[in-house]
User: Fold this.
Amino acid sequence: MIRFDRMGVRYADATTPALAEVTADIDEGELALVIGRTGAGKSTLLRTINGLVPHFSGGTLVGSVRVDGRDTREHRPRDLADVVGFVGQDPQAGFVTDRVEDELAYGMESLGLPGQTMRKRVEETLDLLGLADLRRRALATLSGGQRQRVAIGSVLVTHPRVLVLDEPTSALDPLAAEEVLATLQRLVHDLGLTVVIAEHRLERVVQYADSVLWLPGDGEPLVTGPPAQVMEVTPVAPPVVELGRWAGWSPLPLSIRDARRVAGPLRQRLSSLAPSDEPADASATGAQPLVRVENLVIRYGGEPALRDVDLETHSGAVVALMGRNGAGKSTLLATIAGLLAPTSGRVVVDGVMPADTPPRELVRKVGLVPQEPSDLLYADTVGAECADADRDAESEPGTCHALLERLAPGVPLDRHPRDLSEGQRLSLVLAIVLTSRPAQLLLDEPTRGLDYAAKRSLVGALKALAADGHAVALATHDVELVAELADRVVVLADGEVVADGPTAEVIGASPAFAPQVAKVLGPGRWLTVAAVREAAGAAS
Amino acid sequence: MRAVHQITMPRALHPGAWWLWALGLAAAASRTTNPVPLLLIIAVTAYVVAARRTDDPWSRAYAAFLKLALLIIVIRIVLQGLLSSSSQGETVLFTLPELPLPDWLAGIKLGGEVTAEAVLAATYSGLQLGTILCCVGAANSLASARRLLAHLPGALYEAGVACVVALTFAPQLVADAARTRQAHRLRGHRPGTLSGLRRTALPVLEGALDRSIELAAAMDSRGYGRTTDADRGSRRRTGLLVGAGLLGIGVGGYGMLDGGAEQWRGLPTLMLGAAVAGAGLAVGGRRTGRTRYRPEPWALPELLVVASGLLAAVAMFVTAANDPALVTMVDPLAVPDVPWLAVAGIVIAIAPAWVAPPPKGASG
Assistant:
């Protein structure tokens, strides 16, 4: 269906090609997963499929890409609209109308299909994607998962043979991601659609894939093959695969179901052991909390975003805030960082009320890395950002850069912040925030868009900060990150705290929030491969 | 009778009908400073909006426009109070300390005596502007500007898309700016400084640029522009005709509403402009191969709604032509007369609360 023949892409004024020597076939009815580090060329590869590269983005394409027999060199994206449906990273940014039904019809209107056909296809698509109840809703009022499904529907109406999605679940909570993936699964199985996905969160998608295209980056050639085969050699893998590799299971299980079926002996062996790194509960030791939130209520207009929330953080401990999109996680962090004033209730950070403290003083007590880290950046170069941060914090010149070197070694000082990778940019913002040495560090969805390597270095950095005596609180959907990092988990739902306790207790048995290792070995206290490996190693 | 003609069958009314109805009321408001019909127009728009709005986010626009109208009235009164001169009447309400101004500003007076006449005249003219705003607000909350743009003729399609994109981007820019300002607080900056402005503007503009590119890519991948041929000559001809026509409509409309203008500016110019623009649209419309999904029908309810709005305008225009003293407050202190014919017209314009079909629920 899609044939890459020695395809390469080079953008103007780039020293190395973005892609080189890509040769691969994706068959009809296949769900192909594109993996690789950020900057390895995943998005570029996806965009060659419908001709956005090179027609829209510029740059030169060598070799050829044929989709359903059409050469993308001779067909513009709009001429391929009836063959390839393309959903970009942010579905909201691609919406042209303001209502679900109109958005679905937009593509067909552009193609000039007759009214009767449009009517029929919109109804079919509404049913296919379970959107019938939302048909008259304004797009702005939809949740993340619903928006993603509308975006998929809006390209499906032209009956493409291929569907291309760039990180469809990266902004979604675990359940919304399931919802989108189940939809894609159905399209592949029932309609024989060919689907190509790029995704960092392998743990969510790899079990659905029929083939994997791995872009190792650094000029190495593309590796393709069935998932179980490719996953054996990739340096990054979801926890279930890592567990399988460590335990020597063959064939390598990719889904929880497959892994559970072979995990019996391991479960038995572990039943007598206990994870060694069970964190001490700081609140039980009676230590003074750093942040104390009491009966916090935040209302914007009508519905309260938070009601009667209590929370404490302690120096040296990592707290994870979990919950659906819109549950109030970001609001809680923003209130602790002094961006919102409590409607009622109290927030005390290290003896001061954040909303009444001048920003200059407050940044020494609490630092927040917002959901869009780049909001904090405005200078032309990394060096200028660092110098500004030193000046703002009145610290020794070079403090910020030293921190950045520790978090992400080798970021060039003369680079524009926008040209950094997601991981480097996050490190830069983290360094800027840490320059004023806040006792409490807050992070809002830090792993969005990070690849496994960047995530691993973030985990290392945050663990080191906690060991240094910082209190860390992060809002996240990433259960694997929580399993590795958090001492305590607070689950918010509908603006209220529904669970607050040690990580293993809260997420170990939760159907939505349990990490893969817990699902394979559980119910129980095993959350990460590292913990299993360590305990088993100590026992033998 | 087909279902589209029934006034009780729930469906969305044609956005053009709502806008014409609101324009009729706005035109009526533009010809009078008499508070009786003005307040009545506000009441009528509020009632119809309450009866026929949907539960979409933009349906809440009316409240915002109403607040804006109140603000305008207040500003108007304050300015008039500060700058009033004794030429506007003798009834002194109170005296403000007068600010001495240099000679070359003779004729302008800051402070001093504030007369009841000046304040009332300011109230009435502020009320007039506020009423027109309420009419626009009603149209906005009954049929979003986006829905109206969807009905632009094919020749204006590209311009319409540009407007729709701008309509989406404006609120997003505001949200982005708020987010970036928050981010500066996080770096310990005080908000409101000049360097803060630069630091806010850069990320916001970069974000907007990124989003535009993303949107353009999405539209291209969905077949935008595939069916339109790019014949330059025809495009230029269309542009010229439509532009000239719109100019004619503008001049003619101004002539109609501004009672004092010369005769030639009025109806004939309006008609000529409409004809030229129509020809341009007809020529341009032939080159697009787009189709429209579920075009809203134009049926009996639409006609009734437009007619009710037009009646209000006609009644006001007739009153103004026959008895100008009824619609303009020559003596602001006098108890306003009631222009019965105009009032009757405005009362008829409340009809859409019943003759427009009820909207469908957002989830239904």
Remarks:
- Residues 379-436 of chain A form one domain.
- Chain A has a mean pLDDT of 87.
- The CA atoms of residues 126 and 133 of chain A lie 9 Å apart.
